[in-house]
């Protein structure tokens, strides 16, 4: 088979870009943890020596090489005339402003967690077995929580809940809300802060996540209106909820169909279920052409599919299951009214009612 040299050169160029991004993961994480991005953002341009001093007296030689690496990445700017490094406003949104909608510290941690879990997932390829949530990497659940937090901070209360028919008014008046698969509790607490008349319960089968969630509730002074319980979705005994939410986890469940049926039993007669799932196209051809689809397929290979396969049933929907597949599950579970209420670059929000 003849080699097309132009295509080969294009492919090599793509691989150099991809590998450069992969190599940036450990250096970017060091910058987040040691406050180097924060120091550039807070006090402005700096030489390597000045930046090292700002960041609690770090070693200048390490900081210089790190800063040049970030300049090569395009993550910081570099002025060769003054030998100063800086963050422009767009870079700051990604690397130094935690409540920015595109703050990506958690994304770098998630990439590292996937590498940490590589050997366990590889064994799953051979055996067909799953890798239980929390077992593939030391703090995968922390990274996942941090990755999704900026999206929740900037969309949950401002756009997603108001897009649901009647949900905003009901929450303002006082509602009972269950957040199923709540993880470390970011979504639950954001809702609780926005709707002081309502009461919230977060449920998750992962006890370390629930421990963190309860600590967050204590720190935010919300324990009078929010509690967290370690329990699997299909084992939740409480009933008569006005609203049930599921954020970016239905596709991770071993038995999403069983969970959907159980949620139907948890809701009161006029109850509403909000399902937030990764954005996906109509099928693989559309998804693989998208940068977001690329991220989700890779994350799904390393996290979502192994997690589901480790549970009862093991449906393994994957992060790119898409609206049609999710809607079919909801309708089979007895939800006659299902619609896409809104969407964003990373998520779609479905509304389901009996």
TrEMBL record:
It holds the Pfam family WHD_Rv2258c. GO terms for molecular function: methyltransferase activity. Keywords: Methyltransferase, Transferase. One of its GO terms (biological process) is methylation. Residues 172-279 form the Methyltransferase domain. Residues 29-94 form the S-adenosylmethionine-dependent methyltransferase Rv2258c-like winged HTH domain. It comes from the Bacteria. The keyword Methyltransferase applies. This is 2-polyprenyl-3-methyl-5-hydroxy-6-metoxy-1, 4-benzoquinol methylase. It comes from Sphingomonas japonica.
């Amino acid at each position: 088979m003849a080699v097309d040299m132009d295509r080969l050169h294009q492919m090599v160029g793509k691989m150099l870009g991809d590998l450069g991004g992969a190599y940036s993961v450990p250096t970017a994480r060091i910058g987040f943890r040691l406050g180097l991005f924060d120091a550039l953002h807070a006090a402005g341009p700096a030489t390597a020596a000045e930046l090292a001093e700002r960041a609690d007296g770090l070693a200048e030689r390490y900081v210089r090489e790190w800063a040049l690496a970030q300049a090569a990445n395009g993550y910081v700017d570099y002025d060769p005339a003054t030998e100063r490094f800086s963050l422009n406003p767009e870079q700051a949104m990604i690397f130094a402003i935690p409540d920015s909608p595109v703050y990506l510290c958690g994304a770098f941690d998630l990439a590292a967690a996937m590498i940490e879990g590589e050997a366990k997932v590889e064994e799953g390829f051979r055996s067909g077995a799953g890798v239980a949530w929390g077992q593939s990497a030391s703090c995968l659940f922390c990274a996942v929580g941090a990755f999704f937090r900026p999206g929740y901070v900037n969309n949950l209360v401002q756009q997603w809940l108001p897009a649901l028919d009647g949900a905003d008014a009901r929450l303002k008046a006082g509602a009972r809300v269950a957040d199923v698969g709540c993880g470390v509790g970011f979504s639950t607490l954001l809702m609780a802060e926005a709707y002081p008349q309502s009461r919230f319960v977060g449920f998750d089968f992962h006890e370390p996540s629930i421990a963190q969630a309860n600590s967050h509730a204590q720190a935010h002074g919300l324990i009078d209106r929010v509690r967290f319980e370690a329990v699997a979705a299909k084992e939740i005994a409480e009933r008569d909820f006005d609203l049930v939410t599921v954020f970016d986890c239905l596709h991770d469940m071993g038995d999403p169909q069983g969970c959907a049926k159980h949620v139907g039993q948890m809701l009161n007669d006029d109850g509403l279920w909000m399902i937030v799932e990764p954005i996906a196209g109509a099928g693989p051809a559309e998804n693989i052409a998208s940068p977001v689809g690329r991220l989700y397929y890779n994350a799904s290979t390393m996290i979502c599919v192994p997690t589901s396969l480790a549970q009862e049933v093991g449906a393994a929907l994957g992060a790119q299951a898409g609206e049609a597949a999710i809607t079919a599950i909801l309708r089979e579970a007895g939800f006659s009214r299902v619609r896409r209420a809104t969407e964003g670059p990373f998520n779609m929000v479905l509304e389901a009612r009996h």
